Amino acid sequence: MGRVSQPSTGRQIGVGVALVVIDLVVIVWTVYGYGMAGWADSYESDGAGPSSAPRVASQASWLLGGGAVVTGGGLLALGWRIPGVLQGVVLGGAALLFSAAGG
């Protein structure tokens, strides 16, 4: 049997940190969009139209949850455990928070 080459722990941590920075940018962008939708809903206080903030929260939840499955699962399938788990935790946690906010 041949020995399977695994990526080094240092390389995995480096990739994990780089991906978390990208994740945080995406999360901040979705939080900003959700905040703007909530602000717009409160600005239009006549109650005539449906609220758009829950729709934005639902879209953000699907975006972040899909990103957690695709990137986290893909990295785990490639044997990159540290960044794979990190992606799942960061993006999956953000998706759960948005799904709770969506009502």
Notes on the protein architecture:
With 103 residues, the chain is an all-alpha fold. Helix content is 80%, strand content 0%. The protein has 3 helices and no strands. The protein has helices at 9-43, 53-77, 81-102. Helix 1 runs antiparallel to helix 2 (53-77) and helix 2 (53-77) runs antiparallel to helix 3 (81-102). The longest helix is centred in the N-terminal third of the chain and has 35 residues, at 9-43.
Short description:
This protein has 103 residues and is an all-alpha fold. It has helices at residues 9-43, 53-77, 81-102.
Q: How far is the N terminus from the C terminus?
A: 53 Å
Unreliable spans are none
Tally of helical runs: 3
- Percentage of residues assigned to helices: over 70%
Order of helices and strands: HHH
Overall shape: elongated
Radius of gyration: 18 Å
Beta-strand content:
under 5%
- Whole-number average pLDDT? 88
Number of strands: 0
Which structural class is indicated by helix and strand composition?
mainly alpha
Characterize the biggest β-sheet.
none
Give me the secondary-structure topology:
Layout: H1 9-43, H2 53-77, H3 81-102
Features:
0% strand; elongated; 103 residues; mainly alpha; 3 helices
